[in-house]
Specification:
This protein has about 625 residues and is α/β, with parallel strands linked by helices. It contains 24 helices and 17 strands. A 7-stranded mixed β-sheet has the order 7-6-8-9-11-10-15, sandwiched between helices. Strands 1-2-3-5-4 form a 5-stranded parallel β-sheet, sandwiched between helices. The radius of gyration is 27 Å and the shape is globular.
């Protein structure tokens, strides 16, 4: 890679002396730098490749970090990281102790607000606008949102408030044509830039003021002109909705033309009103494999730089794969089964279901609350909805889970994917709170499969229960030699190893880690809880009493309120001294890193579990 400009960029201030042609050359260098590095580390490639010019234009025109740029999803932020002093650290992306894959205020003062999930940028930016206004600070606030953000209710709540308050907020809508209109061209681009120029704004303002001064009929004429103007905009642009919410709509603009972007940002930088700038970009731009398959390269592991082939073996079956295949099998037998996803068709393993039963598949976009409440409506009136959703995203629908599903005992199945530690995506994506949060909800049943065979059994069994059921499983490949196990019964655990010196209770694939850890420890029993709720109180009490009160609990969720807490609740009146270890995620947010590294640090690997159990004996 030939580097001419990038080596001299250590902060946005270094962009200011560059000409537009030099910025264009820098954009290509950054794009190549991102591709080469992500091929080694993995990451969110396609989105970041699409926002290189947009990122440069914003930092070129505005005075960051005094002016604030908020990113609705950190997927778009790699160029931002590189030009804000993190270029040399970029090869450490997603590694333990290295750069986060998302926007992280702990990394840099240029990272204004944490960004892992979509929807929070406009509400947060609105709060910052209000604070700056009260302090008399003239600096601008920009919120960059993706077109997928427009399916998220929080985005519209923020737009509504910012428009109502007439805040000096600039919303940049990065439209990569994955969700909304593809209409863009030279005329639309030209008109958008012209209509934001100060000269045209002054002329337009003067005409409107003159019309309003016409005796008796001025206000009426002005309202008619505004109505005609709005209808015209609605006919030729996507801007009417935003105009009605109080924003001046600008666009669409070619998001890869730096000259046009810089001109537009300069024109709107001194506008004293809410602005929405609509920018059209190409996801994966500059790397042919990512352009051809932006969904695959949205979040990708290590890949071959020459052809884009993944370094992951195609033979590595994951729990998501098993879930998707099993659901297709069950849906062939039961026409009531429908599947729901929140913009994660491939990630949750539902692609085959979508192709096989397109009329029974519903992708609601990035609207998790809607997915859950819609599922409740389906379940209460005869369908059997299965909502496949990542653990970290299910948090966003917690109220719907309680109020709309559990309160009405609606028989919805939640396939809680990416449960536990997810590795390089870090604290915004670890699925460590689901067991603790759902365990407190009445009517909920929580199943925790230790392997792929249990996942298949649980999905089939869960569909026979007339109550809400959550089945939570990790982001990893399946077990090579699964234990056949016994037939499922509601709230019944399974004894995997017997002993009388101590007992280890575990849930999920960590059961196999526990079995490996205690191989050389005589007299240690191992019990797979199978359920996080209801807990098998009878088996728990019997084994703890048989082991003179010595026990350990191993889980991949948070210790506070998790299954360990559930077991202590069961044992509160045993009347014997208890000696125990609760092992899981401590009361903190776990950083990013490989699963192996994180489990070692947390003591959830074979050595850590062996040491903890040995201390009980």
């Amino acid at each position: 890679m030939t580097v001419k400009h990038l080596k001299d960029i250590s902060s946005p201030a270094d962009l200011k002396p560059l000409s537009i042609p030099e910025l264009d050359a820098l954009a290509q260098e950054i794009r190549t730098f991102i591709i080469e590095n992500v091929s080694h580390t993995g990451g969110h490639l396609a989105s970041s490749l699409g926002t290189v010019e947009l990122t440069l234009a914003m930092h070129y025109v505005f005075d960051t970090p005094r002016d604030k740029i908020l990113w609705d999803v950190g997927h778009q932020g790699y160029a931002h990281k590189i030009i804000t002093g993190r270029r040399d650290a970029f090869p450490s992306l997603r590694q333990y102790g290295g750069l986060s894959s998302f926007i992280n205020p702990n990394e840099s003062p240029y990272d204004v607000f944490v960004s892992g999930h979509t929807g929070n940028a406009i509400p947060a930016a609105s709060g910052i606008c209000e604070t700056l206004s009260r302090a008399g600070c003239p600096n601008r606030v920009l919120a960059v949102i993706g077109d997928g953000s427009l399916s998220n209710g929080l985005t519209f709540e923020g737009l509504n408030f910012a428009g109502m308050r007439r805040q000096k907020l600039i919303v940049v809508l990065n439209d990569n044509t994955m969700f909304i209109s593809r209409r863009v061209g030279a005329i639309a681009d030209y008109l958008s830039r012209i209509m934001t120029s100060k000269r045209v704004r002054d002329v337009t303002g003067g005409i409107k003021a003159t019309i309003k001064r016409v005796p008796r009929w001025g206000d009426t004429i002005y309202r008619l002109v505004k109505l005609f103007e709005s209808n015209l905009k609605g006919a030729v642009t996507e801007g009417l909705l935003f105009e009605e919410m109080g924003f001046r709509y600008v666009g669409p603009i070619d998001g890869h033309n730096l000259s046009h972007l810089v001109e537009a940002f300069r024109n709107i930088s001194d506008m004293d009103e809410p602005i929405l700038l609509h920018v059209i970009t190409q996801k994966g731009r500059g790397y042919t494999p990512a352009v051809k398959d932006p969904e695959l390269f949205h979040g990708v592991g290590r890949f071959d730089l020459e052809n884009g082939d993944s370094q992951k073996s195609s033979a590595d079956t994951t729990y998501s794969d098993v879930f998707g295949k099993t659901l297709v099998h069950l849906a062939k037998r039961d026409p009531r089964i429908v599947a729901i996803s929140a913009a994660m068709t491939t990630g949750t393993g539902l692609k085959k279901f979508c192709h096989k039963f397109p009329e029974r598949y519903f992708d609601v976009g990035i609207a998790e609350g809607h997915a859950v409440t819609m599922a409740a409506g389906m379940a209460l009136y005869g369908l059997r909805p299965v909502v496949a959703i990542y653990s970290t995203f299910l948090q966003r629908a917690y109220d719907s889970l309680i109020h709309d599903v559990a309160l009405q005992n609606a028989p919805v199945i939640f396939a809680v994917d990416r449960a536990g530690l997810v590795g390089p995506d870090g604290p915004t994506h670890h699925g460590t709170f689901d067991m603790a949060s759902m365990r407190s909800i009445p009517n909920m049943t929580i199943m925790v499969p230790r392997d792929q065979l249990m996942l298949q059994k649980m999905l089939e069994y869960g569909l026979t229960l007339h109550r809400p059921v959550a089945i939570r499983y990790p982001r990893e490949k399946v077990v090579e030699a699964p234990i056949k196990g016994v037939r499922l019964k509601l709230g019944r655990s399974e004894v995997l190893r017997r002993g009388t010196r101590a007992v280890v209770f575990c849930a999920g694939p960590l059961c196999y880690t526990v079995l490996d850890a205690v191989t050389e420890l005589e007299g240690v029993a191992v019990v797979d809880l199978v359920y996080a709720k209801p807990i098998d109180a009878k088996t728990v009490r019997e084994h703890v009493l048989a082991c003179s009160g010595n026990f350990a609990v191993v889980e991949d969720g948070c210790v506070n309120g998790g299954v360990g807490s559930a077991i202590l609740e069961v044992l509160q009146d045993t009347g014997i001294p208890l000696k125990f270890k609760l092992m899981g995620i401590p009361d903190k947010f776990v950083e990013h890193g490989s699963q192996a590294d994180l489990r070692k640090i947390l003591g959830l690997d074979v050595k850590g579990i062996f040491k903890a159990v040995k201390e009980l004996l």
